[in-house]
Every structure is written in C-alpha cells, then in structure tokens.
Amino acid sequence: TIEGATINALGGNDSIYNGYYNDGTISNNVLNVIINSGIGDDTIDNTGNSVTIDAGADNDYIDNKSRWNSETQTYEGANNVSINAGAGNDYISNWNGSQVTINAGAGNDGIDNSGDSVTIDAGDGDDTVSNGGDNVTIDVGTGNDYISNWGSNVTIDVGADNDYISNSGDLVTIDAGDGDDTVSNGGDLVTIDAGAGNDLISLQTSAKNNLIEYSSGDGNDTIYSFKKNSTLSISGGTYSTIKSDDNIIVTVGDGKISLIGAASLSAVHIDGKETAKNEWKLSGTTATYGTSNNTLIKITNVKSLNGISLSGKVITVAKASVNAKKITLTGDGYTLALAEDVTAPTTKKAAWSYSGGTATYKSSYKTAGYLLASNAKSISYTKATTASTLATVKGVKSKDGLSLSGKVIAVAKASVNAKKITLTGDGYTLKLANDVIAPTTKKAAWSYSGGTATYKSSYKTAGYTLASNAKSISYTKATTASTLASVKGAVSKTGLSVNGKKITLKKSALSSKVTVSGGDYEFDFASDYSTATIVGSSKADTITVRGKKVSINAGKGDDTINIFGTTMSVNGGAGADTFVYKSGKHVIRDYKEEDKISITSGTATVTTSGNNVIFTVGSGKITVTGGKGKTVSYVDGTGEHIYPTQSNQPVIIDGKKITLTENYLDATFNVADYGAALQMIDASAAPLDIEITGNKLMNSIRGGDGNDTLIGSKGNDTLTGVNGADVFVWHKGDGNDLITDYTDEDTILINGDTVKTKKASGDNLIFTLASKNKITIQGGAYKIIDYIDDTGEHIYSHFVTYKDDGTSAKLKSGYSKKSFEPSDYAKYADDLKTINASAVSHAMSIVGSDIANSIMGTADEDYINGDAGKDTIRSGDGNDSILGGAGNDYLYGGEGNDSLWGGTGNDYLYGGEGENVFLYKPGDSKDRIFEYNPAFDTIKLLSGQVDNVESAGTDIVFTIGTGKIILDNAAGSYAKVVDSNGNTLKEYFPKTRS
C-alpha cells in the first residue's frame, strides 16, 4: 500500500491488507491511508498509523494489528486509527494501538481491545466487548451486552436492556443503564451506576473503596459483599434502612436495595438523605413506635423493648417485656400476640406433698400468667394465688398411701411408718385403709416339735389403731413370745395344761424320761406318771411328783422338789434345794448343807444307818445318802432343826467346810490354821469385822454382816462379802476369782498387778489382768466398781459414763437393764444431777435422787420419776409416764401418748405431740400446762372436785382446793377436767364476741 493512498473496494466481500515490509526485519507501517471497503463481508488487516477504515454494511472482520520493531525489539500497535465497521455483526480487534476510535455500528458485534486511550462505540445490538487497555471509553448502546474489562481509568456506558458487566480494573466508572443488569466488580475505586431495573451487583473480595450510585426509581437492586469501605450513594429521594436477618434493606421510594450480609458490618456508609425512621422508644412502662412527628403504635405496662418485635402489623410480646400488669395496645390496624416464652395462667389441683416424715395436703391454686384478649388489643395478667394448708399428717413415710374422700383421709400401708400418725386440719379426720392391720394379742400357748413341748408367753403383733376422735393413729410395736417353760421328752402337747403358775403334766403327753425348764412355773406330774426319770433345768425349778418309782435330778438352781408319790430317788443338784416330803419312802442322794428338808406333817425321828441319815415319819421315811457327815437342816411339825445338834464352839468343821459361829470373836481367820483340805468358809454368823484368808485350793469364802476383808489366795476362789463395806483382795499369783455380791460400798484390791481390759459378759464384768488372770464381778456390768491396782485407785462403770465427780451419768447403748435407780448409782446418789438414757434402745424405769435432777429418757416407753428436788425431765419419744415428785419441776413429754404428773410443788408440764394425759391430785400446788390441745389432751383429777374455772388473761385456771391447774394461753379454746373414770368434772367454754 502506498502511503497517503485511498482504497475504495466498492461492493463485495473484500480482503484488504494495509502495510509493507522494508527489508524483512523491520515491519514498517504505511501512513495516512484511507480504506473504504463498501458493502459486503469484508476482512481488513491494518498495521499502519493514522489510518481511516470505513468497512461499510454487513458482517466485517477488522484487525488493527501490532507490528514488530526490530530496533526496539517490541510490538508496536497501529496508532491514531479510526474504525467505522458499519451495520452488521462485526468483529473488531485492536492490538496495542493507541488513540484508536472504534464505531462498531448496529448489530451483534464483538470487540477486543488492548490498546490505551481508545474510544469504543459498540452501537446497538447484543454486543460483546473485552477491554484490557487503560484510559478507554466504552459506549455499548442498547441490547443485551456482555462487557469484560481489566483496564484502568475506563468509562463504561452500557445503555438499555439486560447487560452483564465484569470488571477487575481500578478507577473505572460503570453506567449499566436500563434493564436488569448484572455487574461483577473486583477493582478498586470503581463507581457503579446500575441504572433502572432490578440489578445484581457483586463486589469481589479484592474490590475496595467502591461507590455504588442509586437514583430513586432505579428498581430493586441486590448487592453482594458490600464492604465497610464501600459507599452507597442515593439521589432523587430519601431512604430508610432496616435489618432483615443478616441483611440490610435500604428503601428508596418504591425501590429497595438489599445489602446481602451487611448486617454484620460495624458500619455501613450510605450517602443521601435518610427518611425519618420509625423506631421503638420506651418511656417508663409505655412503649411507642413511629417517628417524633407520627406515633403509629402505643403499648402500656411493659418493662422493656427487648421482648417486643414487629412483623407486618402484628406485635409479639415476649417474656422480657411483660410486667405483671395488663398490657394495652393503641394503633390503627395493629394487633398483639404472645411469644412462646410467655406462660398462660393455670389452675393447679389440690394435692399432697411430702417432706421429712410429714405429708401436707394443700388447696388448689393458680399460677401467674398472661392471656390475649379476643380482639388482640390487650393482654390481661392473672396474679398467682397461694395454696393454703388444709391438712397435715405427721409420722408417715410417703404420701403414696394417702387418699382423700371429702374430708376423710385414708392411710394405707404405703404410708405408715411404724410410728404414731397425727393429723391437723379443720374438719379433717383419719381412717385406716383395708391393707393396714390392727395390733392383736396372741394368747400364751403350747407348741410341739421334735419331742419337745414348749409353752410360750402371749405376745402382740404390730399394728395401728385409730383414735376415737379420728385425729391420730397410734402404733403398737410387736412383742416377741418368750419361752416360759419347756418339756423335753414329750410325745404330745395334749395332756399338758397351765393354770396360773402351775403346769400339770399327764402321762399321755410324756415319755419315760423328760427334762423340764421354766423356773417361774411349778411342774406338777400327775399320779399316773410312774417308773420314769425327771430332769430339771439349771434354774430354780419347782417339781411336784405324785407317781411311783420316779427318779428326779433337779439340776442347778435353788429347786423345790415336792415328793408326794412313793419310792422316789431324788438328786437336788447344785443350789440351795428344798425337799418337801409328804409320804412314802424316798432317797435323797446328794444332800448339800445349803439344802433343806421340809416335812409337811408329823414329827421326824432321826436315826443313822452307816453313812446315811434316816428321817422316819409315821410309816414313811426319807433316807439322806451320805448325810451322816453333813449338817442337815429340816423342818417338821415341831419346828426347824439341824442334824447333828450344834455345839457352842466358835468354829465347826464338817468335812471340807468350816463354819464360824456367832461365838467367833477374832478379827482374822486363816484356813491354813485348820487344815489343808478345807475349801468352804462360812463366816455369815460371825458378829465382828473379820479378815478371812483362804488356801491354795478353790475356796468358797462367805463373809458376814461386818466390813470384812476376803483374801482368796491361790486357786480359783468364790468370794461373797454378804453385808457391809467389804474388801476383796487379789495377790499376784492368785487364781481366777469370782466376786458374787459386789456393792457400791465394796472395794477390790489388786496387789502386784494391773487391770488390762474390762469386758461385760451378760450382767457380769470381767477384769483381765496383765498377768492374764481374771477377776469376775457377778452383776458388775451395771455397778460402780471401786478398785485399786498398782497404778492407783479407779472408779469404773461399764455401761454408764460418770463425769464431773459423779454429777453426771450417761447410759451407753449397751445398757440392757430395765431400770436405773438410786441403788444403781448409790455411790453418787448425793451428787448425781444429770441422767441421760437417750442412747438406750429399750424402755426403762428411771428414778432420780433427792437433789435437782435433769433426766433424759429413751425413745421407748419409759417410766421416769424425778423424786425430790427441782427436776427437769425430758422423756423423748414413746408413750411415757412421767412423775416430777416433790419440788418445782419441768416435765416435757415429747412425741407419744404421755402421762405427766407434776407431783407436789409448782410444776410446768409440756405434753408435746400425741394424746397426753395430765394428772393432778389435791395438794399438788400450782401446775401450769403448756400447748394444751382439747382435741388430743386429757386433764385427769385423781381425787376430789374442781371448785372453779375461769379465764385469767389468756390463761384458763381450774381451782382445786388451794391448788390450781393453769392452761397457758388457752383461753380461746374449750377445756375440761375429768375424774379417774373419764367423767367430766368441770368444763370451760371460750367467750364469744357478739
């Protein structure tokens, strides 16, 4: 092509190339060329500068190419080129050419540009424009266009229709025009005007400091990833904003701009004039919604705005805003609703509750709550009501067994608790359900099993009894049937009968050998029981035999053997036995000197035959085998006798026994002085204090009425002090001694050893010494033992702890005796003030001393007598009987049906829970009764009459002679006094106000 040439291709599909090569290394451009291709689908390539291209109509391909500059080693674009593609679907590319003007004309054109300072007019049609050059102006015109730009300082004006614009360049201005456009931007400092239509704008992560322009009427736009450094500029109207979930909705006139996800931003920049905003305000307890000039909603009696939400014209009120008052709404077309966390009032039915042994029946009640009015213009508030206690049942283990019918409370097995049950509640009464058993008394009876017939005592089964006023249910503990008597060797219980304390035994019930036990009963064998053997027990038996040829072995114990048959052979066994003779010929084979023969009729003639002593009575006789060497005591029709007749000697030796008579006046006695074989020393008749020393054998030493000293010496000795303040002496090397009758006046002296342990064995107390020898104190477990060993003097009580020099006594849980009386604490009787038996688990009889005592009973059924002095007695649980005695006493009954008698003096009586009886006898002075309940308590006068009754302040006063019964603070209640038979003596009726 020649520089400065004009090319006119006229019509047709032409191919035009403008440019030349000089020498093959430098591609030179051809300047100042004008190309007019005319109508047709033309292809035009240009590498020259300052070229004007007019492609004409139809679908043209125009390539404004770059060229290689070998001197600069770069591609150079064709600059200062003007391209007019004309109508048609054209494709135009500009490679690095600057100062280029492209006019694509109408049609669906494609334009690629990489040159700077380029002006592009794509014209109408659905155009596609890609630009990478800077300082470029792009005007696309109408049509659904696609523009992609990555150049900077670019102006894009897309025009009408639904366009798609993608930009990653900086300092770009985008005017999307009318239509529903989509703009994606990743550049900085970009201005976007999406124009009219419902547009979508997406700001990429890399986009910063963008300005989005919106004019009133532009439509409903959606902006994604609006940033803290983004700005929304609004013109042509005012705007308002609201949050919607994570988004911010900007309203301008009828249009909306949705800033997706912008609610989480700390700041949203909007330039424009904001519409006066409707908002909630709280003044006191009144909430309003609207502007300062226009209130749309008014709600009264709310405490916070936090629980108020508006959706359309429905206002939901949540728990955070309700204020325990009626809520009212004013607002045209608006209504109220209650949130799910606001509770409605409910009515709870009357019901039982249970805690710590007490069941409580309470009335129905209402819970507080809110109700929406039918017109949804107000919310009413209902206050909670309190359940009142209608009935209280104490002493139960569960509420599960309680049922109510009207005002009758049925108590079933599931609720009873082996305790007394009491009811309080106006008009309510108790009854026992069918599954609750009453106590029953089973009679004493015989049983038979395995050859033994056993007679057991009566006993009670446990059970519950409803009080006559139906206000309480008492509990009776079960008792255990004890074995009263047994017959081993029986063949049946038929033929055994009991009458009082006598058991009659017939032959039909017995084998030829039987063993009987039951010390409180007489075993009376019928006369048909003969040719048999009868064996007694280790206790004191009474055996009556009426048959023939019967052998009797009474066993241990102080037995009584009634020999009423014929030809009996009798062994009394250990113990002081009594042989009662009536008739017949009998043999006593083991008479001991503590035994006695009682001849019920006639006079005995005493003879001997060999070593035997024979007592002849009429035609009958009693032969005492080996009796000649013994002292035999017997009683006949002429009185008491001793065989052989005693002399007046001070010492009588009979076999191994030495007896000191009333003629023994020495202060000491040593068995060794009288013979090495002697074992039994009896000084009970000696008139003076005496020191008795045994030998190395197993001695049995018995003192007298004086203050004796008993020294057992070697051997396992039995020491009995009898009366007086005796001293029992044990020396190192002595055996295991038994003290049979220790009293509080006595002392145990241990020489050369120490007490290591103390242990109770039944009623006995066993001292184990360091040498492993033992001293057993019979009955000592319940006594105060004064002993001296090598460590000094000690005072010890096994089951009672004495403190403060004997002023306080606490009974331990193992204390099994049924009583604690002055004889049990005689050593401290003058000083003991406090007695505490609360650890003992069985019923007791407790008696105080003559001084002021403080006594605490057990949880069982006690008898407590304070005796003289100003006593304070607390009986604890159980049905107790309390007597204050002389003095001004304080008596506290505790739980249970107690009996309280103050005795003489001005006493103060507190019955506690239960059906209590207060006793009074003329001469008892002035008693004051506290917590009197006429429904449960009884005041009983043991004798005499009530002279008067009246109120005195808040008290009721019954006058009996010179004494008074005062019911403390009871003037508002009914009261009466009855006699011993329950007959009313005097009534008090409270005054009523008319």
Overall geometry comes to elongated
**Beta-strand proportion:** over 45%
Number of domains: 6
The CATH topology of the largest domain, please? Alkaline Protease, subunit P, domain 1
Class by alpha and beta content: mainly beta
Mean pLDDT, all residues: 92
Low-confidence stretches: 21-28
Determine the fraction of residues in helical runs and give it as a percent range: under 10%
CATH class of the largest domain reads Mainly Beta
Overall CATH architecture of the largest domain = 2 Solenoid
Largest sheet: 26 strands, mixed
Gyration radius (Cα, Å) is: 62 Å
The tally of helices reads 0
What this model shows, in words?
This protein has 994 residues and is an all-beta fold. The protein folds into 6 domains: 186-272, no CATH class; 279-338, no CATH class; 347-432, no CATH class; 483-643; 651-790, Alkaline Protease, subunit P, domain 1 (2 Solenoid); 800-988, Alkaline Protease, subunit P, domain 1, CATH 2.150.10. 0% of the residues lie in helices and 46% in strands. It has no helices and 108 strands. The strands form 15 sheets. The chain has a 26-stranded mixed sheet that branches. Strand 73 and strand 74 form a beta hairpin. It is elongated, with a radius of gyration of 62 Å.
Which key terms come to mind for this protein?
mainly beta; 26-stranded mixed beta sheet; 11-stranded mixed beta sheet; 108 strands; 0% helix
